[in-house]
Design goal:
four-stranded mixed β-sheet; four-stranded antiparallel β-sheet
Length: 144
Amino acid sequence: MKGQTAVFEEVMLFGIGIAIFISSFFIFNYYQNVALDITSRDHMAETLDYIASTIMDISKIEGNVSVNINIPEKINEKYYYTISLGDNGIELETIPEGIKVSSNLYGIMTGHGLTIRENSIASVSRKLMIYKRGNEIGINTINI
């Protein structure tokens, strides 16, 4: 009887160890996903701010102008994304997860009398042309 009790205690101890390992794995995996989501949104916000500030700078320049900027191909080296420019501002959305970050461009149309040319492009080109022709501001990809 004493031998069976010792074996039972060892089996229970092993089972508890496995349960602790599995629960630790799931807890750390959950926190890793939360951290990835936060850093993805931060990276998207930085990219959006970079594009929006370039658009704001161009809007202040008289005449026709175009600026070529480099953008990251992926967010956190994981997500491709689209950049959409329209009357509501500019929006970045990851593919296929659908995480969105947007900016209204702070009243660019009313403040400078400009119109936005609606367009949506993918991030795979890694180069973005922001242009102003007359009263119209738009974005386009640059093929390398």
